[in-house]
Records
---
Amino acid sequence: MSAPTPSARHNDIMEQVPCNLCGHTETTLRFPDTRQDNHLEGSWSAFCCTHPGYGVHPPIVQCAHCGLVYTNPRPRRDAILHNYEEVVDPLYLQERHARELTFQRHLRKFEAFTGPAAGRRLLDVGAYIGVFVEEANRTGWRATGIEPSTWAVEYARERGLDVVRGVLDDDLFEPASFDAITMWDVFEHLGDPMNELQRMYDLLRPGGWIAVHTMDIGSLFARMMGRRWPWLMEMHIYYFTSRTLAEIIRKAGFEVRTVRPEGRYLRLKYLTTRLRPYSTLLAGIVDDGARLTGLDRLAIPLNMGDLVTAYARKPEA
Ligand SMILES: [Zn+2]
C-alpha cells in the first residue's frame, strides 16, 4: 500500500465543528486557508507558544448566528491535545523575565476583584512552566497548575511548584475546591472552550472569581490589520471579541464583571521576531541596534488593545 499523501494525512486529523457559543453551523468565510501543501502538519512545533507561524492557518469562519470567529475545519480535539502533550519550547524560557512582569501585573489586577490571597486556593489552567503559579504563591495564594505538556510540567515541578499533568476533563480536582481560577493565553487554543468554562465553574466555590485572558479580534488594531493581524495562526482555534467572550462566559453560568484590554511585557528581541514577517529590513535594524546598545534583553510594556482579560464570578449559592 502506498503512503498517504500529505493532504490525505491532514484530512484524517481535521474535523468540522458547530459554533461553540450557539451551536449553529451556518458560517461565512472570514479568512481563507493560507496553509501550503508542504507545511509542518501534525507537528508539535506549530503549537509552541513561541512558534513564529504567523499568517499560516486553516480557514477561519464567522458564525452567521452569533458572530463567533473560529477555525473550521480544524484539527480534531485529540490531535490538538496530543500536540500540546508533546510541546518542548526552550525558547519560552528566554522570555521568563518578561512573563514574570506580565503575570505580576495580571495578578495585581485580578486581586482587585478577588481580594487578598490570604492562603486561599488558586488554579491556573494551562500553567505551562508554572511562571504564574510561582508569582501567585509569592503574593500568598496556595497555587496549583494544570498543564498537558510533559516537558513543561517536569520543568515546573523541578522548581518545586504544584503543577499536575493533564487537562480539566481528567477530573483531577474536587468540585468547589478553588477560590480563583485563571487562564492566560490558553482559551484561544482549546478544542471546546464552553466545556472548559463549565469545568471551571464546577471547580470554583460559590463567589469565586475567574480571569480569562485572550486576543480580541474585534479590537481596533485587529480590524485595522485585517488578514495581517499577527494572531491569525494555526495554533489559535477561537478568535473571541469582547462581546463573544463575555457571552460564552455568561452562558457557562458566571456573572461577568468586565472585559478590558490588558497588555504585556515583551523582550525587545522577541518583538523583532514578530516584526520580521512584515519587514525583514526593519527587524534587522532594530535587532542590530538593540544588540549594540545592550537593550535586547530589555522588557518593554506593550498594549495594542487586542489582548483582553475577562473577570467573572460564580454566583453565591
Ligand atoms: Zn454561533
---
Amino acid sequence: MEILNQLPEDHWLNLDGLLAFLAVYEDEGRLQAFQQVLKKLDLREGVVVEAGAGLGRLSRVLLEVLKPRTLYLVEENPLAVRHLHTLFGATPGVRVVQGFIESFQPAEPVDLLVQEFFGPLLYDESLAALERLPFTPREVFPNEGRLTVQVIPLSAFQDPVLTPEVWALFQGALVSDLFDDSVVPYTPQATVLTWSWSGGLQHHEVDLSGLEGEVLRFGVEIRHNGIHLCDPVHCPNWPFVYTPRIGNRFRLSFTYHEGFSETRFRWIKEP
Ligand SMILES: C[S@@+](CC[C@H](N)C(=O)[O-])C[C@H]1O[C@@H](n2cnc3c(N)ncnc32)[C@H](O)[C@@H]1O
C-alpha cells in the first residue's frame, strides 16, 4: 500500500504510519493468540497501559478481557489518536493520551503494560522505547521474542524472476515478503537475537558454515512467559525477511531514533 498523491509532509507521514500498521489489525491469528493468554492474567480492576494503541483493535480486547479500572491508550500518531477518541471518548475508565510512551508519566502505579512493538526483525520497530520508560510497570505483555534464521537454496523457490543473477543484486538488503513462503517449511537453524522485558536485547553469534544455500530467511517468534504466541506462519503481520547469503557471519544492529529503531545489516569478512 502506498499514497500516490502529494500531501502536506506531516499529513503524509502520519497517514503512511497508519498504513504501515494496517496488517496488524487484520491479523486475526495474532488477536486470538494474544486474547487466549491475556484471559489467564489476573488483572481485574487493574491499571493497564497500552503502549502504541494504534486504531484500537487490541484496546477493545483489553477492555473486554481484563476489565481494567483504568486503561491508558498512549499513541504517538495524531490520526490514530483522533480515531481512539472517537472510539473510546465516552468509555468510562479509558484515557487516550497523545505522545510517545517514553514520555508518558502515569498518575498511578501501572499493573500491566501491553505492547506490540515487535518488528519482522524483532527489534526493528519500537521495542527500544521500552528501555526508556519513565515508569516501571509490574508486568509487560508480551514479554519475550526471538529472531531465528534458516538457510535455503535459491533453487528451492523455483522463482522465474529471482534468478541467481537477479538475486545477487539484492546483496546487503533485508527484504520482507519476497518469496512464496509456503514452498519451503520454516525450520529455524540458529537464533540471531533474543529479547525479553527483564533482559533486554541479546545478540547471538551465528556461524552458517556447513549450511547449504544462497537465501537467508529470518523469522520472528513472540512469546509470553515461555508460551508461544506468534510466528510468521501463523501471524501474517510479521512477514519473513530474506537476504542473499554472501558469507557465514553477519551483524544486525539497531539505533534508536524518536520512538522507533533504525536497522543496520552487514556481512563480516572471513579472516
Ligand atoms: C503495531 S501497532 C500496534 C497497535 C495496537 N497496540 C495493536 O496491537 O493492535 C504499533 C502502534 O504503536 C505506535 N507507536 C510506535 N512507537 C511508539 C512509541 N514509541 N510511543 C507511542 N506509540 C508508538 C504506532 O504509531 C502504532 O500505532
